[in-house]
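Write out the 3D structure for:
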Amino acid sequence: MGFVPGSDTYFINGSSGPIGIQCRTATKNYPKTIPMRVGMRIGISGDYSELRSLTVTYGNGKVVSLNSRDLEGIQVTSRITHGVWWIADSGVQYISNRDANIRQRRLTGGRL
């Protein structure tokens, strides 16, 4: 599946605690850890290139690093062309915007 032209890259913290993420796209590197509270959604502003790596650091110290092959495998398995990166305690998923909105509302008590 890979890169979908014109699509945005969004991440949602669906885990049980705060996390930090670092990522790299085809055109930019984001080496500084971006903190995310539970239920938070962030997007990579103005960067529409393919996500090449993602590192998630959980509050308990657990670190999950995904490379381009890992991310593409997750996307292909999801069968979704435009979605959101959902980061849960169990790992990273690529889900539809609709499912992301439903899950995010559950975590935040109705807020998006």
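The two ends are 28 Å apart (CA to CA).
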